[in-house]
Amino acid sequence: MESGEEGVHEPILIEGRHGIDYRLERVLSDAQLPYFKRLQLASWLELKLLFPLAAPAVLVYLINNFMSLSTRLFCGHLGNLQLAAASLGNSGVQLLAYGLMLGMGSAVETLCGQAYGAQRYEMLGIYLQRATIVLLLTGLPLMMIYIFCKPILILLGETEELASAAAVFVWGLIPQIFAYAVNFPIQKFLQAQRIVAPSSYISAATLGVHLLLSWVAVYKLGLGLGLIGASLVLSLSWWIIVGAQFGYILISGECKHTWTGFNVMAFSGLWEFFKLSTGSAVMLCLETWYFQILVLIAGLLDNPQLALDSLAVCMSVMGLLFMVSVGFNAAASVRVSNELGAGNPKSAAFSVVMVNLVSFIIAVIEAVVVLALRHVISYAFTSGETVANAVSQLCPYLAFTLILNGVAVGCGWQAFVAYVNVGCYYVVGIPLGCILGFKFDLGVKGIWSGMIGGTAMQTIILLWVTFRTDWNKEATLTSRLEFQVEKAKTRLDKWEDKKEPLLRS
């Protein structure tokens, strides 16, 4: 601890690593400062804490999303059928594995974070291996869905031509399932130790390799190998990320206490880990599958290829731009929990306001850009003029959705937001979209309008709850950590044979 300018002890180390800065609470509580001066100082302090947290997360999310998006771009230039097939395979099938693997991998973040805080560093490596084994086993039934996706898609009402092309694309994504199974535990393992920059550097370098290999696979290996070549390259790129991150763990020296080699303890407690990880996976899957359902519904319209093409272009743009908001959402969760844990209710409330404001400003800028480019945006995916006209008509819906999402992501309560999302999406969004799309014959516009209805309800609920929150009460509740600490210790003791912590040298 060092003394601040006014004699107040400020935790400099904590400020640098956890984002807690008691100057923000002090500024917000200083009634002697003029209101606008207080607001200016507080905003500057909050932005200094927020952006270093958000920037690495935004970068990784953007790069990983753009790898998948670029694959659809290459496929789109092979033809409208190939774009629809890649979009259906990606959004209709691949998101199944992504949501399940990411959700189950999130359990590693909790366990590794608890072990790291308890200085039981060797357990992080064991949790990493245990999670990888469970996720690899989970990938086997998912692989069967990929293999038999053609009859499944036909059973769901897709045309045989579209289902056949989508199946070719999906078969090339089978290796990606197992890359997910290894990648997500590694990411959470590193994040628990606050090692975030290497993942962004690795993802950036892999993106360059991915673009080059995709160009070769799609355009140099012939039209017949275009779809399967593009998806195989995407799978390969994810395995490059996995190999590079694991290589970093082995040779960097930063993980020498947390990775002590392969251990037979990883094969114990597999069922307990599966049960623990299933809970976090179910809710995330319900959110992820919402977009899959919309794509599958669009495939049932009268002109499914055009509907899927236009919806794919807009959803791809939305998915990429939404990664910015997702990064700020992660930063919001950290900032609010940090401030509440430190007993700073004013800072927690101000953090929520600032994150919402920044997310909203960014979303408005994105919406303006989308509207300005609405007549040409589809040509990045396909050269078809018919698709371009359909996309330009959908862009106002896309812009409005971006603004709504920009407001909603800033609240930072992940568990509560997940329940709100599922309720609004499945109770309002999907039924309303089906009614407007089929009953009122609005097509893909009706389906998207249903999504807007669900998102609007979500935004209203989150803003109302945020406005009504008693932040002093939240800080008081958060300060009662004894039960959670004991619970974490019990879990660690249950799954660990050696109880003595491995201290850093």
UniProtKB/TrEMBL annotation:
It comes from the Eukaryota. This is Uncharacterized protein.
